[in-house]
Design a protein that fits this description.
Layout lengths: L4 E7 L5 E6 L5 H7 L21 H18 L4 H15 L15 H17 L16 H9 L11 E4 L19 E4 L1 H10 L1 H8 L10 H6 L7 H8 L1
Antiparallel strand pairs: 1-2, 3-4
Protein name: HNH nuclease domain-containing protein
InterPro entries: HNHc_6 (IPR041242)
Organism: Ligilactobacillus acidipiscis DSM 15836
């Protein structure tokens, strides 16, 4: 079940302790049926929401992506796409509505969830994006993840290699490396060579992009063809 709430208190420690206040009444009887009557440890998922009003830049990106999808499809379907993605958002968020109009009550976090749905569609169907590429949130981990998953350069969109942020070293055997413990990013051959030639700091300054990379799980690494030694990770999953 999904319930709106706000965090009243945060205690800073090794593991943050939160005091959460629900904004709707909790159905205790229903909760008991989920946990066989034992409420000594109830699991929940916390999402930290950006409460600011959805930004014009998010609206601009949404419609730029829709324009690129329309051009790819070869048919006038801008209104259809808007309704399609708004409906998909509603389905994924328990019937909640979304609007990017100037007078919207939706938050930055709401708009980001909508954009995630559109970006998923773009990568899944390999939609060529020209108008919207420069607007994509390249500092967002989800975008970086999708670039790696679909092997598209996060700087230019061309077919990419998987670049390790921390170099493995000359003579290192990649087949013996657990790549889940190393940060990676997707870069085409041209940008891959460039970052290795000029270094991370200069590359980041030149393209105004973060170059910290992300960590990928075993399943994703295997799907994109990154071979390595994943036995330790597999054993941790089984445990």
């Amino acid at each position: 079940m999904w319930l709106p709430a706000f965090i009243r208190k945060i205690v800073n420690s090794k593991f943050a302790e939160l005091t959460v206040v629900l904004q709707e009444k909790l159905n205790i009887e229903h909760l008991k049926t989920m946990y066989d009557g034992d409420l000594s440890k109830v699991y929940a998922r916390i999402e930290i929401v950006d409460p600011r009003k959805a930004r014009p830049a998010q609206r601009k990106l949404f419609f730029a992506l829709c324009n690129d999808i329309q051009s790819w499809a070869g048919a006038p379907m801008k209104d259809f796409l808007k309704d399609y993605f708004y409906t998909a958002y509603s389905i994924e968020n328990d019937g909640a509505e979304i609007s990017l109009a100037d007078n919207t009550s939706n938050s930055v976090s709401d708009a980001n969830r909508l954009l995630d749905i559109v970006v998923d569609f773009v990568f899944e169907w390999n939609v060529p994006i020209k108008e919207s590429y420069e607007l994509l949130p390249k500092n967002e981990n989800w975008f970086l993840y999708q670039c790696c998953k679909h092997r598209e350069c996060f700087e230019c969109g061309r077919h990419a290699d998987i670049h390790h942020v921390e170099t493995i070293g000359m003579g290192g055997n990649r087949l013996k490396v657990d790549h889940t413990k190393r940060r990676v990013m997707a870069l085409c051959r041209e940008h891959h060579r460039e970052i290795e030639q000029i270094g991370r700091s200069k590359f980041s300054a030149k393209y105004k992009l973060p170059v910290n990379g992300i960590k990928l799980d075993v399943e994703t690494l295997k799907k994109i063809g990154v071979k390595g030694n994943y036995r330790e990770e597999a054993e941790n999953v089984r445990e």
